[in-house]
Sequence to fold (198 residues):
Amino acid sequence: MTGGLSKTTVSTVYQPSCQPHRPKTAYFGPPPASLSSAVSTPAPPDSAAFDKARTGLWASLQKHLATIYAAETDYRAATRFTDTFPFPASAATSQQLLDYQHQRAVLRDLFVDETSQLDTLVKAIRTKGYAEDDKKLLLLMLLGYFDLAETVFSLLDTHRPSQLEPDEELDEARGRFERVRNFIRLNIRGVAGLLKGI
Fold:
């Protein structure tokens, strides 16, 4: 999803390790070729090119959701040792804590990477030669994705230990996620100028 949205979609590799790590990701990087071809030459609102762009973005979002839901399943499995959140470290064995830390790192890094790539995608959509209503349609699709993704990423705040080390990058990603989502909401309502400097 960098630059002119000219590459292909998604790959995510999680290494089987109990140590926290950053997953190898290329989220929305960039959407499918159909979207790339659509943005290369501005097309009429009802053109087949825009329909392909919309379809390509939809397919890309579905793949991203599948990745996020898989991470959710693993994260929830790593917290099955307790029904109380936040949980004290004493509630888990050493191995359970290692498993939890690993899955938290996976979900945390996925959140940071997704937020960055979504921010880039929204900015790219704003610069393309689509009709305003078409841009709003793409942004509306992204807004639905934001809302679904949040139901998973919010686990980082709810299903957590009672004590955590400060994480400035995660805090920054949270703020960025909300800023971009709020921009989309305002843009769909026709007041994008309020957040021109996003």
The chain has one domain: 12-195. Residues 29 and 58 are 14 Å apart (CA to CA).
